[in-house]
Every structure is written in structure tokens, then in C-alpha cells.
TrEMBL record:
Cofactor: FAD
The protein's name: NAD(P)/FAD-dependent oxidoreductase
Keywords in alphabetical order: FAD, Flavoprotein, NAD, Nucleotide-binding
Segments forming domain Pyridine nucleotide-disulphide oxidoreductase dimerisation: 368-474
Amino acids binding FAD: 60, 123, 153-155, 321
Cystine connections: 51-56
Binding sites annotated in the UniProt record for NAD(+): 190-197, 279
Family: Belongs to the class-I pyridine nucleotide-disulfide oxidoreductase family.
Amino acid sequence: MTANGAEEESGSLYDVLVLGAGPGGENVADRARAAGLSAAVVESELAGGECSYWACMPSKALLRPVTARADAGHTWGLRRDRSLPLDVQDVFAHRDEEASHWQDDGQVEWLASAGIDLVRGHGRLSGPRRVTVTQEDGTVRRLSARQAVVVVTGSRAVVPDLPGVADARPWTSREATSASRVPDRLVVVGGGVVGVEMATAWAGLGSRVTLLARGSGLLPRMEPFAGELVADALRAAGADVRVGASVTEVARARPDGPVTVRTDAGQEVEADEVLFATGRAPRTEDLGLETVGLEPGAWLTVDDTLRVTDVADGWLYAVGDVNHRALLTHQGKYQARIAGAAIAARAQGAVTADAWGAHSATADHHAVPQVVFTDPEVTAVGLTADEAERAGRRVRAVDYDMANVAAAGLTRDDYAGRGRLVVDVEREVVVGATFVGSGLAELLHSATIAVVGEIPLSRLWHAVPSYPTLSEVWLRLLETYRDS
Ligand SMILES: Cc1cc2nc3c(=O)[nH]c(=O)nc-3n(C[C@H](O)[C@H](O)[C@H](O)COP(=O)(O)OP(=O)(O)OC[C@H]3O[C@@H](n4cnc5c(N)ncnc54)[C@H](O)[C@@H]3O)c2cc1C
Ligand SMILES: NC(=O)c1ccc[n+]([C@@H]2O[C@H](COP(=O)([O-])OP(=O)(O)OC[C@H]3O[C@@H](n4cnc5c(N)ncnc54)[C@H](O)[C@@H]3O)[C@@H](O)[C@H]2O)c1
């Protein structure tokens, strides 16, 4: 027995055990190894996780040709090609490549090269610092951890339990990112990020898309103009976008027949496939959480060092989607770097919980960046004006029409977009930024640096954007703030 009461079974005792080999899990194990700790990850499907096979990578591979064609169709000298059909089979072939053909050999090789053991099977907690793995052949392997167990089991799509759903065989984000046939008609339910990205992709690939979103607009967690600009572009691309539409029922009378989707407003839409992009649930329902006093199926609440708050002795951590802080790959990887460093520091009694320190995921509260890869792109970091006001901050929002930036006229003949800074008027620092428009994804990091660095506006005047680039929106926004 070890000091922690863990059994010393040959090859089964590690410093750190990680449940889930998605981007968060791989990175936390890597950071633990880099700090000199032994680490194993347990994975029940494919090493690489949702992001690699059914989320970020395949979705962006479907979107890029669609947005590139939209850009080309509005570029002088290429405009006649606006209706040029995409080579859909080529798009699918590239998507399959980006999803590594749903094989994880590359990830397995990388884990081995980093000195991380991979244990394949379904992992469950079986008490403090203990994990039981049911392997593919049915055998059970018991593992234990000296320092920490990190839960990084991610999230899954939620399909609402509506009448007719089971028989309708709806798509979730998994089918929407991996399908290799373009449905003639597709209904997308949900106006969040998955809904608008997949509506953009499949409309571009040739489906007649109807997007049904409840509430007053698309992308409800972002500045309202973001959803409005994306809705305008989707409509221009031929999609039928209906807001204020909550789906109440679906029906597919014959397995090979069409599906009918009904809303609370009495609307009825017939389609070949229906995608539910209606949010995510944590993958914690069959994880043995009850063996350590936690509720199965719940999101795991953590402190800023990523330790689960409701577990004594601080040995359980949760990173990535499963802690519900920010359901984004880059933010999960950030948390993984912090958690790995915190676990190693705690082992030596040297952890520091200072904000913005090496062991604190402070950015989760102030500066989560996100790019929505639609046409136009939506990019945002920090607080929206509404969030800042609801938090009791004294802020001023300043806006600028992206079409008036000199580079916009060089980019597209129909450039539509808007930039917004949310400025804390007491400290004169940027606490939020949103840029919507074509070609803006790479601009976002400048705003992330301004928010994280709390750079005073007086200093930002000296950060001179190159001419003629879309980054000049920064200068125009500073002028607008000064003059308003
Ligand atoms: C369609 C779509 C597009 C997206 N696009 C982007 C994007 O462009 N950019 C971005 O930043 N984010 C994007 N996201 C979000 C991103 O995919 C997630 O934030 C990210 O995958 C979370 O990483 P994770 O490591 O927490 O979990 P996951 O990637 O979900 O990995 C968890 C892993 O744990 C394994 N697992 C679960 N339970 C067990 C168990 N009991 N035992 C063993 N293994 C287990 C799973 O099999 C999985 O491999 C997108 C999401 C969707 C749905
Ligand atoms: N590019 C990116 O960064 C990217 C891309 C895709 C996903 N993601 C992440 O994945 C997460 C999940 O995205 P999501 O879009 O599935 O969830 P979401 O929670 O963002 O949006 C779901 C939407 O569905 C609506 N909805 C729910 N039930 C409905 C019903 N019956 N009828 C009509 N509308 C209904 C909700 O009101 C909500 O607006 C997001 O938090 C996002 O961060 C990121």
C-alpha cells in the first residue's frame, strides 16, 4: 500500500490518471509527463476525442471550401464563378483526411512518443484515486493514482426528448460532420454555434436548409449584431432562417421516407434529414461519480486550479467540456496546461493560486476567445456589452462598420461586418471585443491580448495596424471611442 492507500499493482500505479484522451486529456497527461510525473490516459473510443473526428476538424474541412467560394464569388475577376458548383466528393475526401479516416494511429504514436500509457476501455472511478477500466475484451483492469485523477470525458449532443424523435433517426453533430451524402433538404434545429456552422456548410454543399432557432436571434450568447449578420448571409445563400421557432415534434412515418418537423407556432417543415444542434450534456453518467460522493450525469464544478470543488483531499480534477467553463478545444487545452502544472506543483507543496499565475485558469473568467467559421466569420472575446452591464460594470460599447475600413473594399464587393469594443470606462481598458466579417478569424488574437494584458487605450493608440489591413478597425474603434 502507498501513503495514499493505493494498491501497488505492477504497471497499474501512476502519478496521474486521465479519463478521456481528447484534446484536454492528451494535454494534461503531456504536461504531467513534462513535469516528471508518470501518466496514463484511459480512452473508450478514439484517442484525439470529439474535436479530431466529429467536431472542430471535420466541420472546418466542410466549411472552408464553402466560405472560400463565397469570398471568391465576391472578388473582382472571379465574380462570374459565384454559382460554380463545389466538387463535393473532393470536399468529403479532404474532410475524411482531416478526420484521419476515423483512425487514431497518429494520436497513439504521439502518446507513446510523449511517454504516456494508453489504456483502451471504459473508465470509471471506483473510490478515491482509483479507476476501473472495462476493456474491449470484457476484462477489467484496476488502476490507481498517487497524485491525481483528471476527468476529461467531454460532452455529447443533447437531443430533446420530443414526440417522434426516436423514430426520426435525427442527425447530431456527429452525423453532420461525418455524412458523405448531401441531403436534398435539411432542417437544422438550434441557432447556436453548431447550428449556424452546419447550416452554412450544408447549404454550401447543396442542401436546401431550413434553420429553426428559438429566441429572437441566432448566436444568442454573442453580441446581437453577430447573429443578425450571419442570418442575412444564410438567407442570401438560400437558407430559410426562422427565429422564434421552438421544435415540439418530429415524425418520420417510413424509415426511408421524409421527416416532418413541427414547431410551437404551428409551422411544419418537411425534409430528408433533421439535425438537432440543441446543446451538449456532460459525459459523466457512467463514470462511477457516486463512488466519490458526486452526482452521476452532472457537470463537474472546479476551482481555478481545475480541482473538483466537492471532493475532499483535492485529488480529483476536471478539465475541458466536462467542467462546463468553456466548451472549446483551445480553452480545454489551456486548462490542461494549468492543471498539469498545478498537479506537479502540489506534489511539491508549491502551488500558487494567484490570479493570472501559472496554476490558475483565470482567462476562463475574463477572456475566452471564439471564432465561428461562418460567412461572415464571427469572432469574439471577453464580455458582451449586455454581459458587462448585467455584471454591474461601467462600460461603453463602441461600434464601427467594417465595410468602411479601407481593406474591406479590397476584400469583397459586398463586405458586411461590424466591430465592437466594450470598454471599462473607469480603467479605460478593453473588456470585450467582437468582430464580424470575412477574413477576421486571425484578427481575434489581437483583442485577446488586449483583454488579457489589460492594455490601456492610451497605449493601444501606439499599436499601429498595417495599411491596408482589416486590423485598421482597431484604429477606427479608438477614434470612435475618443470622439463619442
Ligand atoms: C460540431 C462541433 C464543432 C466544434 N468546433 C470547434 C472549433 O472549431 N473550435 C473549438 O475550439 N471547439 C470546437 N468544438 C468544441 C470542441 O469539440 C470541444 O470543446 C472539445 O472537443 C472538448 O475537448 P475535451 O477533451 O474536453 O473532450 P472530448 O474531445 O469530447 O474528448 C473526451 C474523450 O473522452 C472519452 N471518454 C468519455 N467517457 C469516457 C470513459 N468513461 N472512459 C474512457 N474514455 C472516455 C471520449 O471517447 C473522448 O475521446 C466543436 C464542437 C462541435 C460539436
Ligand atoms: N467554432 C467553434 O468554436 C465551435 C463550433 C461548434 C461548437 N462549438 C461549441 O460547442 C458547444 C455546443 O454548441 P451547440 O450549438 O450545440 O449548443 P448551444 O447551447 O450553443 O446552442 C443550442 C441552441 O439550441 C436551441 N434549442 C434547444 N432546444 C431547441 C428546440 N427544441 N427548438 C429550437 N431550438 C432549440 C437553444 O436555445 C440554443 O440556442 C458550444 O458551447 C460551442 O462553444 C464551438
